[in-house]
């Protein structure tokens, strides 16, 4: 008969207390991402922001800086980023579904948000936590442009024309290249389509071969 495991209530309670104290000792969002706009350093870590980000920090806003002044903290509205508008022609945005504000922040401009991501016109189905909410390049999508962005239909993806070689064949090809002394850094790929150019001699040879097999008509 197996020995019954003894419950250690005091040790278990002490473990929960240590875990709770460790959780409470962690810095809040407002403390972790606080920023001194004169020195461009974070007081908690002392790290300085990259110089290329200083312009956006002075002109753009964080996500919760926009949400703090909106009704229901912007739930249901669309938000995009400056980098997405510059890098992609297809619409990329978040539709916010849930917001958890850090009320200990001075202006309630920190917290966590969840939503549905649409990236390059492709909408995801699952709700997930929004990342990079502390970045200073968030923008609110005007209401008169929301439907236009939602109605966008992305172009179909081009068909796959090349696939990677199996691991053994790939290793053999790379070994053959290195043995021949060829300095080719391209990954070897296997084409799925075979492009063959046929000329007149090819079709003439095919006709002669077919006549030879079928015989001459009498």
UniProtKB/TrEMBL annotation:
<dbReference type="InterPro" id="IPR032053">
    <property type="entry name" value="Ribosomal_mS34"/>
</dbReference>
<keyword id="KW-0689">Ribosomal protein</keyword>
<dbReference type="GO" id="GO:0005739">
    <property type="term" value="C:mitochondrion"/>
</dbReference>
<dbReference type="GO" id="GO:0003735">
    <property type="term" value="F:structural constituent of ribosome"/>
</dbReference>
<keyword id="KW-0687">Ribonucleoprotein</keyword>
<protein>
    <submittedName>
        <fullName>28S ribosomal protein S34, mitochondrial</fullName>
    </submittedName>
</protein>
<dbReference type="GO" id="GO:0005840">
    <property type="term" value="C:ribosome"/>
</dbReference>
<dbReference type="Pfam" id="PF16053">
    <property type="entry name" value="MRP-S34"/>
</dbReference>
């Amino acid at each position: 008969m197996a020995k019954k495991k003894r419950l250690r209530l005091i040790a278990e309670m002490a473990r929960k207390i240590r875990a709770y104290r460790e959780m409470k000792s962690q810095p809040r969002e407002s403390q972790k991402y606080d920023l001194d706009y004169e020195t461009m350093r974070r007081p908690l870590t002392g790290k300085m922001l990259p110089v290329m980000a200083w312009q956006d920090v002075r002109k753009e806003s964080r996500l919760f800086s926009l949400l703090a002044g909106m009704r229901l903290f912007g739930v249901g509205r669309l938000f995009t980023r400056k980098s997405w508008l510059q890098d992609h022609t297809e619409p990329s945005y978040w539709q916010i579904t849930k917001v958890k504000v850090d009320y200990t922040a001075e202006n309630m401009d920190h917290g966590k948000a969840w939503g549905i991501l649409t990236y390059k016109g492709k909408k995801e189905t699952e709700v997930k936590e929004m990342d990079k909410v502390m970045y200073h390049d968030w923008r609110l999508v005007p209401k008169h442009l929301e439907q236009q962005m939602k109605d966008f239909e992305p172009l179909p993806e081009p068909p796959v024309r090349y696939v990677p070689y199996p691991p053994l064949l790939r290793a053999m090809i790379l070994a053959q290249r290195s043995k021949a002394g060829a300095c080719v850094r391209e990954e070897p790929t296997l084409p799925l389509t075979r492009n063959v150019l046929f000329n007149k001699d090819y079709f003439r040879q095919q006709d002669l071969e077919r006549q030879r097999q079928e015989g001459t008509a009498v």
